[in-house]
Amino acid sequence: MSTDVNPARATPRRVLFVLANPATSPTTGWPIGFWAAEFTHPYWEFTEAGYEVEVCSPEGGDLLLDGYSDPRHESGYSAHDLVSLGFLSSPRHAAMLKATPRLADMDLGRYDAVFVAGGQSPMVTFIDNQPLHRFLAAAYEAGKMLAVVCHGTCALLKTRLAAGRLLVEGRTWTGFANSEEAFADSFVGRRIQPFWIEDEARKIPSTNFVVDQRFRAFAVRDGRLVTGQQQCSGAAAARLVIEALGR
């Protein structure tokens, strides 16, 4: 947990991050996890605004970065990401990714916002995770800000409110775009994801799924729902949450 506290508030705002557990990709066979920048960049925005940050995962335990998101990875794909490099180089901060508590053990009432990061693992571990879907719906219906970015938005394809309708029904939202999936597949020379979020979102009636240019920061707020298009959008999504809740 961050110890940074804004002295202007007697009780700091508090945000709960939900990060994916390690898994194995059914399409590539790679070990997969969460995308570093989708946690570290929003973390920076929140703590700079005086928020307390806590981390959990659906199953608890140690977490794994997607390799291409690690600025130390041999591919050099994220070598420019100095925010993540700094976070991972700090023992106090890197320890937040070890022995994470289970989502089921978190008290939703303690938080002002829930922030769901993406990565490759969510496409396997979030898409049909009904306890996660129920938690997100409960957060939204309890009046919390709910932010979901990149491949984490696959959870919104199946998250239903208590009345039975999809949370995104009647909402404008975004997520990883087909243009970005095509670029990623071309970059590695093979199909990466088992499905594409934009394809599935456009099958949902009465929702408005929108995307911007590929890999450009783009986040959308519709009421208490904030979504970010991809890994470049985590900080933008965090700023929308802060704008809504204040410092």
Describe, in plain words, how this protein is organized in 3D.
The protein is of the alpha/beta class and 247 residues long. It is 28% helix and 14% strand. The chain has helices spanning 37-48, 82-89, 91-94, 122-125, 130-141, 178-188, 197-201, 234-245, and strands at 14-18, 23-24, 31-32, 52-56, 113-116, 145-149, 172-173, 208-209, 219-222, 225-228. The strands form three sheets. The chain has a six-stranded mixed sheet, sandwiched between helices. It has a two-stranded antiparallel sheet with strand order 2-3. A two-stranded parallel sheet has the order 7-8. Strand 9 (219-222) and strand 10 (225-228) form a beta hairpin. The radius of gyration is 17 Å and the shape is globular. The protein starts with 13 loop residues before the first strand and ends with a helix.
Protein topology:
Blueprint: E1 14-18, E2 23-24, E3 31-32, H1 37-48, E4 52-56, H2 82-89, H3 91-94, E5 113-116, H4 122-125, H5 130-141, E6 145-149, E7 172-173, H6 178-188, H7 197-201, E8 208-209, E9 219-222, E10 225-228, H8 234-245
Parallel strand pairs: 1-4, 1-5, 5-6, 6-10, 7-8
Antiparallel strand pairs: 2-3, 9-10
Number of helices: 8
- Sketch the topology as an H/E string, one letter per element: EEEHEHHEHHEEHHEEEH
Strand content: 5-15%
| Biggest pleated-sheet summary | 6 strands, mixed
Name the shape in a single word.
Answer: globular
Our measurement of the CA-to-CA distance between the termini, rounded to an integer number of angstroms, reads 18 Å
**Largest sheet, spatial ordering of strands:** 4-1-5-6-10-9
Q: Uncertain regions: pLDDT < 50 for 5+ in a row?
A: 1-7
Structural class assignment: alpha/beta
Q: For the CA atoms, what is the radius of gyration? A: 17 Å
* Number of DSSP-assigned strands: 10
User: What is the average of the pLDDT values?
Assistant: 95
Query: Helical percent range?
Result: 25-40%
